Amino acid sequence: MADITWEAPFCGEGANCFRIGTDPAGNAYIAVAGQEDRPLVDSREALRALIRAVKAGKADHLL
User: What is the pTM of this model?
Assistant: First the structure.
């Protein structure tokens, strides 16, 4: 596994907690808290785009 630096867990309502991490190669990771050994990985820009879309309410139908 890459050398991932994880942020503190972010928890929404209930127990829906996830973590965001990055590595020195410029990849971004997102994982369910406690399951960091099985993250989704993409570029940092893709993660930024996802976060912007969520903040803009464009992913509310998925939640």
Answer: 0.70
